[in-house]
Amino acid sequence: MRGCGRRAGRAARKRRQKSESAVQSVSLCHQLQYVKLMKFLHQRGFTSTLLQPALFTDTGRGLQTLRTIKPGQLLISLPESCLLTTSTVLDSYLGQYIKSWKRRLSPLLALCVFLVCERHQGEASDWLPYINVLPTTYTCPAYFTDDVVTALPACVRRRALEQREAVREIHSSNQDFFRSLQPILNQPVEEVLTYEALRWAWCSVNTRSVFMSRPSNNFLSGQDVYALAPFLDLLNHQPDVQVKASFNDVTRCYEIRSVSGTARFQQAFINYGSHDNQRLLLEYGFVAPGNPHSVVYVDIDLVCDVLRDDMNLNQKIKFLKENSLLQNLTVSSDGPSWRLMTALRLLSMPQTLYHQWKAVLLGQAVCEEREEWSVHTAQTLCQRLLQDTHTALDKITDLLQRCDQSVREQLDVVRSLRQEERCILGRCLEVLQGMMKQPDEPLSCQPDVDTLS
């Protein structure tokens, strides 16, 4: 560090040089699309002397600090006039069509239609400088090909298909409203408000908007919490970063304040929340390396397959469902979750001990034999998940050899998720092996002559 009175040792210098060379950046502020974006925002009252758009070797596009950001310092303050909200839409040429439509639209759909129409207007659009810096495609499941979807873990695969279907449903169920917009379009509406265009807008809003609660109105239906924030939305997510973000009713700006600070010329990050990588992939289309919140989900269908010989399995599953213990069964690098082990302990119980099932759900210990069975079953589940992960990674390797660039980007995200899950499952198996080796303390167990299922 410059100006430091103590000279760093050779090892420290090597570590610093390695760290600095690991992530490199190139400023984007002189590229025409960003020059136009900043001019557009300046005209609306925004100036930024702390951050500039840059391309980073580890995350891609992001915002770089031009000065050291101190803890508690305001990182960015974006005026309300720069935010694209439903108020923007209702005050635009689209407003009269939305307000007079027989069925109230959702805030999300209103924003999506506005984005598509503004992109269609081209140079005539007031928001073109912002639209030109939006991604042209996304790595969200709504974009995934069938081959990419099949490479996902089972529980993610279901939600990915649901996401694709949800976007298709929004497009197909609003055709009448789209046709009503023909007077403001210079091409047939079927060529403008296509499924592909709506998908692009849907992903733009869902992945890039900030949470900003809006007052209800008589023209839109549902929670109005989306605000697209040009320039601010270039900030990337990092799980261990702490920031405070909200709309300031006094300054009428959306503000982000750094909690921990950022060194000069480093990438500034925000935190989307304590999300595991499956959720990040589903909602934002990326995976965060070294995410401390990451887990592997154990699908209940897999549990049922592993325990298919248990004659009382259906009744036990019903009991778990009634007690809300079928969801969020997970393993992490630290081992199986409490929910998973509690569910397995209950599944180890025979029908004759039905009167003890509730007590087990509340944390009552089971006998040593049933505890060992539960740990062994957890091992079996992890091994099955690990086998599925290896199969998926082999399939991804094969697909990468014969796909175009857009599919390659999708596969890269899924591969990152699968590689992380492979590491988590491997560490969890080591923890479970240690649990099997450790001598158990005597556990209270009611005498039972039934054999384990």
Automatic annotation (TrEMBL):
Residues 309-425 form the Rubisco LSMT substrate-binding domain. InterPro entries: Rubisco_LSMT_subst-bd (IPR015353), Rubisco_LSMT_subst-bd_sf (IPR036464), SET_dom_sf (IPR046341), SET_MeTrfase (IPR016852), SETD3_SETD6_MTase (IPR050600), SETD4_SET (IPR044429). Gene3D superfamilies: Rubisco LSMT, substrate-binding domain, set domain protein methyltransferase, domain 1. Keywords: Methyltransferase, S-adenosyl-L-methionine, Transferase. It comes from the Eukaryota. GO terms for biological process: methylation. GO terms for molecular function: protein-lysine N-methyltransferase activity. PANTHER family: SET DOMAIN-CONTAINING PROTEIN 4, UNCHARACTERIZED PUTATIVE METHYLTRANSFERASE. This is SET domain containing 4.
